[in-house]
Fold this protein.
Amino acid sequence: MPRNLAIFFLFWLWCLPLFGLAYSNLLGEVSPHRLNLTREYMKDHYGIDSYLLINPQMIVIHYTVTPDLPSTLKIFLPDELPAGSRPELSPYGRVNIGVHFLVDKEGSIYAFLPLWMAGRHTIGFNHTAIGIENIAKNSRDLTEAQLEANAKLVKELVDTFPSIQYLIGHHEYMNTNLPHFSLYRENYPHYRTEKFDPGPRFMRRLREILKNRYHIHLLD
Ligand SMILES: [Zn+2]
């Protein structure tokens, strides 16, 4: 068996316990092109010559700034950042933005990228972070159903990956005073963005549910 095929086969075996998280998948099979672009990004930004997400240590919560699922998929489905679409990101890599889960307004959870690969969603942390996007135009647009779905999903991820210790909102990612910042790794110090998603209110309520209902205390 060729070496690459053997590695893929081993990965499928390794992924089997993750089928407990088998939400309907929106991306389908990841193209070899996307894997190559992800590897290129990981090598350039983190010095890691791989597209794999191994022992994820944190979860980052986002919202999409889109009104619904079809408009969200239009942005997320292409393998490459569409030309001219994100001038703040495009000089730093061709791979499109991508997360592991999308949560729709009424609380439906969809898998997007498989959990064994890195996604481009949080500068400085993609080598170790699972990304969850909530479909919402702004923080006021986030729903109670999304809050509940995020709590359930974080609980399942924490149960699946004992390596997860940190949970942050994207708006917190460049806060050097928070514990998660010890994981920051980036070869381009000026590559950063200002983020407002999902906002302090959503994160406070999510942390409360995790603590009170599931006794989960993650570092921020
Ligand atoms: Zn975000």
